């Protein structure tokens, strides 16, 4: 029965099989027309969306492997000729500045270090905090939940002024440690939020059973709760890594003065205005900035979208 | 029988009123553990988020310049001059209008496209998982790389868009997408749509998956056409999600700094308040005025967050 009813939407030829109550009969009922039109429209939309979203990425890769002079001669061509293919752009962008390149290896190391530091600190804080929010009753729990929601929604530009003033005053602008802490403050709320949601789905009875068997709270967390929550913790770590790797505003505010401390994002944005560096070389830089994120994303897409939609049932 | 002693006090403590449970009970120990586990996070958030925001209020009432920062006293000498200056300048009101237009149109465009995408991709087809994941790329890609490649694509000299426009679509001359009014504002809104629609797409897809198929099947049996099914069955179910999404996106777009700063630098009629805050802070070194304008953003935000909290997160923050 279910099959029969859903069939018309799938196949245009289906009206014959529909129950007799529907206004079928003539070959061009409104349902048939709509089904056919929507059936075509659907593929148009999917194709259009795919081109709209993916073309900039394709263009990025394309320009990064094309030779600059042939690009300027024929900017409209959408595929590279074998004769003009080059990896010289990547060589130039990766070569250290002392040897005449753009030194992106150094920038990648900075970005990686900052991102990993942010992940480590965020996860330690967030696992403890979210476990407490999900499992333990303590005074002020509700208020803490509201606080994190507010922090999650508060954007970074509002923190830019006071943190900039504060770190300038202390002479700590340019130090990586404070920047990692600032990043943690940006990611901790969303990490606590999603991890708490996950902990709430782990049945408390498992922990209670362990408690009955005499396990302490610490043992329960280490032996039972953490292993069960590992997928969520992992996806959170990846999510935090992406945020920290992509971050721009605070890197711009704190690290801009010293090139040796630039992150990849900051480096690309600073060099983008320069006329001396060819666009194709900077495109290679963009690919280097984007590739780790794309690889991480596709490798863990299932985990990540699960984590991203963990809050989706809000509404 | 090792379990019995552990279980019975626990059950008792649950039934008892928290106020009457004394030290040493499980209930008391639970509260103590909870506070110990949450406090590092709370302290971090207080020091790095809440205190700075409160300090912004203080800064907004001071006449503080970046150059004199090292020597100036950080408290005292309060003045309302910053607010007088900010509210008295036409640039501020213009930026506020631009911010509202940008946030409003950006939100509508990204949620709208997200809805279209979610509906088009609803029924399974070969390779759907891959296409779905690909559509999320703009949202996860680094903003600096995305703005850079858009800038090159829209470049009037050798950008592909102008190349196609003049070559195939018959434009008379290349369009300076990012440096002309009002094209620049439209461009940053389209960019916002490109970058943020995956967020709406993801949430609406999840919501559609949760919608019971029986309702739509019943309507089809009764002879409803596909558009009628959407209008009367699917749309009402999606509406609460769309409302929450629109509010969230509006909050984030309203305060968005990165995209506009990187695309246009705030030029050609795209100066939004967040870019203005940054300019006053870094380029002009006028900390007081920057703080005052940040406070305006914060005020709007507090109103919106309160709405969100009332509206969507009632049972979420229990």
Automatic annotation (TrEMBL), chain A:
UniProt record, GO biological process: transmembrane transport
Region of interest: Disordered: 1-27
Keywords: Cell membrane, Membrane, Sugar transport, Transmembrane, Transmembrane helix, Transport
Family annotation (PROSITE patterns): ABC_TM1
One GO cellular component term: plasma membrane
Start-end of Low complexity biased regions: 1-24
InterPro entries: BP-dep_ABC_trans_perm, MetI-like, MetI-like_sf
Topological type in the membrane: Multi-pass membrane protein
Pfam entry (one): BPD_transp_1
Entry's localization field: Cell membrane
Main location, first listed in the record: membrane
Keyword Ion transport set for record: no
Family assignment from sequence similarity: Belongs to the binding-protein-dependent transport system permease family.
Protein name per Swiss-Prot or TrEMBL: Multiple sugar transport system permease protein
Organism, scientific name: Geodermatophilus siccatus
UniProtKB/TrEMBL annotation, chain B:
Membrane-topology descriptor: Multi-pass membrane protein
Subcellular location: Cell membrane
Family annotation (CDD domains): TM_PBP2
GO biological process, one term: transmembrane transport
Residue ranges constituting the ABC transmembrane type-1 domain according to the UniProt record: 96-308
Signal peptide: none
Source domain of life: Bacteria
Membrane-crossing residue ranges in chain numbering: 35-61, 100-121, 133-153, 184-204, 233-254, 294-311
PROSITE patterns: ABC_TM1 (PS50928)
Pfam family, one: BPD_transp_1
Region (Disordered): 1-23
The entry's keywords: Cell membrane, Membrane, Sugar transport, Transmembrane, Transmembrane helix, Transport
Any Gene Ontology CC annotation: plasma membrane
Family: Belongs to the binding-protein-dependent transport system permease family.
Name by which UniProt lists this protein: Multiple sugar transport system permease protein
Organism: Geodermatophilus siccatus
Lineage: Bacteria, Bacillati, Actinomycetota, Actinomycetes, Geodermatophilales
């Amino acid at each position: 029965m279910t099959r029969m009813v859903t069939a018309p939407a799938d196949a245009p030829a289906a009206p014959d099989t529909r129950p007799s109550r529907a206004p079928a009969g003539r070959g061009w009922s409104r349902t048939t027309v709509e089904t056919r039109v929507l059936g075509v429209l659907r593929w148009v939309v999917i194709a259009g969306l795919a081109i709209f979203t993916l073309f900039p990425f394709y263009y990025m890769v394309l320009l990064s492997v094309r030779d600059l002079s042939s690009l300027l001669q024929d900017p409209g061509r959408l595929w590279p000729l074998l004769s003009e293919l080059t990896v010289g752009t990547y060589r130039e962008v990766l070569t250290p500045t002392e040897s005449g390149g753009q030194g992106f290896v150094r920038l990648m190391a900075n970005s990686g270090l900052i991102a990993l530091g942010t992940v480590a600190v965020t996860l330690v804080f967030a696992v403890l905090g979210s476990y407490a929010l999900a499992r333990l009753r303590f005074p002020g729990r509700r208020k803490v939940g509201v606080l994190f929601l507010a922090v999650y929604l508060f954007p970074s530009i509002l923190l830019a002024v006071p943190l900039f003033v504060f770190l300038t005053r202390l002479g700590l602008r340019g130090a990586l440690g404070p920047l990692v802490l600032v990043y943690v403050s940006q990611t901790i709320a969303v990490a606590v939020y999603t991890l708490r949601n996950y902990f709430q789905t782990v049945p408390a009875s498992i922990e209670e059973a362990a408690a009955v068997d005499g396990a302490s709270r610490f043992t329960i967390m280490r032996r039972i709760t953490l292993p069960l929550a590992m997928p969520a913790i992992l996806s959170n770590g990846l999510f935090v890594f992406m945020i920290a790797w992509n971050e721009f505003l605070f890197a711009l505010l704190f690290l801009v003065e010293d090139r040796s401390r630039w992150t990849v994002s900051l480096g690309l944005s600073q060099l983008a205005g320069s006329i001396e560096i060819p666009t194709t070389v900077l495109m290679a830089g963009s690919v280097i900035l984007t590739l780790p994120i794309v690889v991480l994303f596709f490798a863990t897409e299932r985990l990540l979208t699960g984590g991203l939609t963990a809050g989706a049932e809000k509404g | 029988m090792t379990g019995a002693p552990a279980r019975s006090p626990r059950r008792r403590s649950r039934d008892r009123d928290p106020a009457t449970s004394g030290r040493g009970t499980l209930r008391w120990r639970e509260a103590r553990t909870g506070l110990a586990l949450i406090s590092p996070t709370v302290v971090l958030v207080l020091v790095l988020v809440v205190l700075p925001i409160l300090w912004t209020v203080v800064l907004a009432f001071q006449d503080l310049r970046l150059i004199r920062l090292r020597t100036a006293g950080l408290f005292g000498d309060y003045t309302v001059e910053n607010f007088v200056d900010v509210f008295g300048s036409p640039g501020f009101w213009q930026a506020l209008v631009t911010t509202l237009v940008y946030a409003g149109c950006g939100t509508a465009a990204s949620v709208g496209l997200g809805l279209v995408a979610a509906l088009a991709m609803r029924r399974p087809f070969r390779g759907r998982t891959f296409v779905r994941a690909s559509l999320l790329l703009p949202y996860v890609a680094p903003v600096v790389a995305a703005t850079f490649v858009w800038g090159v694509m829209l470049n009037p000299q050798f950008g592909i868009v102008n190349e196609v426009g003049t070559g195939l679509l018959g434009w008379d001359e290349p369009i300076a997408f990012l440096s002309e009014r009002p094209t620049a504002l439209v461009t940053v809104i389209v960019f916002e749509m490109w970058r943020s629609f995956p967020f709406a797409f993801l949430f609406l897809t999840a919501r559609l998956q949760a919608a019971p198929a029986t309702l739509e099947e019943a309507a089809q049996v009764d002879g409803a056409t596909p558009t009628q099914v959407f209008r009367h069955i699917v749309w009402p179910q999606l509406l609460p999600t769309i409302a929450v999404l629109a509010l969230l996106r509006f909050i984030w777009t309203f305060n968005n700094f990165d995209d506009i700063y990187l695309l246009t630098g705030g030029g050609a009629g795209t100066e939004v308040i967040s870019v203005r805050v940054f300019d006053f802070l870094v380029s002009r070194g006028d900390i007081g005025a920057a703080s005052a304008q940040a406070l305006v953003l914060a005020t709007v935000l507090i109103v919106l967050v309160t709405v969100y909290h009332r509206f969507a997160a009632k049972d979420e923050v229990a």
